[in-house]
Amino acid sequence: MEKENPMGFYDDRVLPRIVDVACGTKEMGRYRARATAGLEGVVLEIGFGSGLNLPHYPPEVTRVLAVDPATEGRTLAARRVAAFGAPVEFVGLDGADLPLDDASVDHALSTMTLCTIPDVAGALREVRRVLRPGGSFHFLEHGRSEEAKVVVWQDRLTPLQKRLFGGCHLNRPIDVIVADAGLETRRLDRFTMKGPKTIGTMFEGVAAKPAA
Length: 212
Hints:
Rossmann fold
């Protein structure tokens, strides 16, 4: 049984619609296709949102286990879920507390989510726990810049960003967070999207749970 959703009206009902539009661009679609490449079998997606990744999943994916706290996201995702070629099961609200057995999923996916999860370290520990040995974690996230001047503004703007966008941090070092969770980075591509570098500094890559 899922936990009761503690989110307020704005975060639960309004923000998912904003994110669906802002993160549903053609440019983001190209990056989503890169992030989902190589997924197969049972995939855990934390931060499922409105299902924007579903059209980019490879046909080798046989089941998606979706985690997201916003109920409005499920409404927005309904059309994409119906068109998807495999079952999608909503299994929880909190990435830091997954109702799944150890080593029970083949791969995991996170896109534009690690910036927002309150206990991001706990969520990635949970990802590592439920991944089978050798399973991979695919991620597409925005985060801390390598440019000092940009970091200054990211740090300044993050308190406001958190209030407006459901706890979103501009300044999280995604690569460090993934490595600290005990996941071995196999590929990491850092780039900057169009627009302000404060929000467009991106991390796209694959990390794996050690096989032994």
